[in-house]
Amino acid sequence: MKISKEEAAEFLRTHERFLLVGHIHPDGDDIGSIVALGNVLEAMGKTVDRVIADPVPERFQFLPSVKSIRTSIPDGASYDALVFTDLSNIERGGGFDFPKVPSLCIDHHVSNTEYTDYLYLRADYAATAEMLAELFLDGGFSLDQEARNALYMGIGTDSGFFKFSNTSAHTLLMASRLVEGGAEPAFITNHLDVTTRVSMEVYRRVLDTLHYACGGKIGLAAMDATSMEMDGENSDYYVSIPRRVEGVEIGVLFKADGPETTRLSIRSRAYANVSELAAHFGGGGHVRAAGCTIQLPMAEAEAAFLAEAEKYI
Ligand code: 5GP
Ligand code: MN
After folding, report:
1. Whole-number Å distance between alpha carbons of 276 and 110
2. Is 286 touching ligand 1 by the criterion CB < 6 Å?
3. For residue 111, which ligand has an atom nearest its CA?
4. Mutation to probe ligand 1, out of 52, 265, 268, 288 (largest number of atoms < 8 A from CB)
5. Does 87 share its domain with 22?
6. For a disulfide at 3, which of 7, 137, 191, 273, Cβ 3.0-4.6 Å?
7. What are phi and psi of 211, to 5 degrees?
8. Does ligand 1 have an atom closer than 6 angstroms to the CB of 285?
9. Running DSSP on this structure, what letter comes out for residue 74?
10. How many domains does the structure of the chain reveal?
11. Per residue of the chain (313 residues), what is the pLDDT tens digit?
């Protein structure tokens, strides 16, 4: 059942023992959201466990509470509420046996499959962290410094630091209110902008794979098994390579995930609905940023992708 911001706030107020769940291959928005939500609930005297099936990428680990994020549900724990953040479908939750307690999903993916008892969805917001910032700031919740930084990070990373088309006046307003309350843009950017030497090497490898289709309207690049091993957790960074080329409407990054499986990160610039395109392959996401997994080796996955993607150009 879809619910409002006020009803979501009420759900948070009226439960006590929370299990918070983020998505596999977590990004800055998901991590920022789960950190901030946990801190806010703990400040209200509630107990919180945070679970994300995959490890948190190194570059987000400067937030101290990231240490509390587990990769599995602790044995014997009991909960009275389950909250999923930034998680569009239950398969992206990591395949856990979730407790049978009232569940809420707070998400901004247009492709959300409504898998929880309650869904607070804002597909017009750039980030789940933007939703939480509004919910907390308007709802009179107390936000500590780390929570403000975490939410700023979430809004920043999902909006390309206020450059993508999902950046609205409201996105900027939430960022502004977080900064007004103490969030530190330079501190966050300094942590996120540092690029390792390994990452630079992978950048070179990915650049080497860059090619085009559809008269240059589709840009393609790839991370093979070696690149994935070197820096697979930062694939977000590399999808910007095909995406930023002049004339490219759809940019796609193919990521080797075993010999028979390819994951895709898909981005569009002006008109192609890549959420729909990804859904054709069982994935989803947003209109301008989506992803999916194709059960084929990379070359065949590319052929299958192109046959469909051409229809969106
Ligand atoms: P990314 O390319 O950064 O992994 O993902 C871009 C967007 O698409 C994110 O919002 C992410 O949640 C969504 N996404 C990525 N992969 C999948 C997928 O396999 N299924 C669905 N439903 N969404 C995905
Ligand atoms: Mn998000």
Report:
1. 10
2. yes
3. 1
4. 265
5. yes
6. 7
7. -150, 175
8. yes
9. P
10. 2
11. 999 999 999 999 999 999 999 999 999 999 999 999 999 999 999 999 999 999 999 999 999 999 999 999 999 999 999 999 999 999 999 999 999 999 999 999 999 999 999 999 999 999 999 999 999 999 999 999 999 999 999 999 999 999 999 999 999 999 999 999 999 999 999 999 888 899 999 999 999 999 999 999 999 999 999 999 999 988 888 999 999 999 999 999 999 999 999 999 999 999 999 999 999 999 999 999 999 999 999 999 999 999 999 999 9
Closest residue CA from atom 2 of ligand 1: 265
Is residue 283 within 6 Å of ligand 1 at its C-beta?
A: yes
Locate tokens 């070696």: which residue?
226
Distance (Å, rounded) from C-alpha 122 to C-alpha 194? 31
Question: Ligand 1: does its nearest atom lie under 6 Å from the Cβ of 290?
Answer: yes
**Domain range for 28:** 5-192
Give this prediction's pTM.
0.92
138: its two tokens: 């308007």
Can you tell me the distance from the alpha carbon of 201 to that of 152, in angstroms, rounded to the nearest whole number?
Answer: 29
Ligand 1 neighbourhood includes 268 CB (under 6 angstroms): no
End of a domain among 159, 174, 192?
Answer: 192
